[in-house]
Amino acid sequence: MGEGIRALRILAGPSARAQLRERGLRPQDVRVIPAAAGGPKGLALNPLDRYLFGHWLPRSSHTVHLVGASIGAWRMAAACLGDADHALQRLAEDYIQSDYSRADGQTPTARSVSQDFADTLHRHFDGRQADLLAHPHWRLHVVTSRGRHLLRREGRFSTPLGFMTAFAANAVSRRALGGWMERVVFSDGRDALPLPLTDFRTRTVRLDAGNLVPAVMASCSIPFWMQAVHDIPGAPPGAYWDGGITDYHLHWRYDGLGDGLALYPHFQAAVVPGWLDKSLRHRHRATPALDRLVVLAPNPAWVETLPGGKLPDRGDFKRYGTDVKARQAAWRGAVSQGQRLADEFADLVESSSSIEAEAL
Question: Considering the entire predicted model, what is its pTM?
Answer without folding.
Answer: 0.96
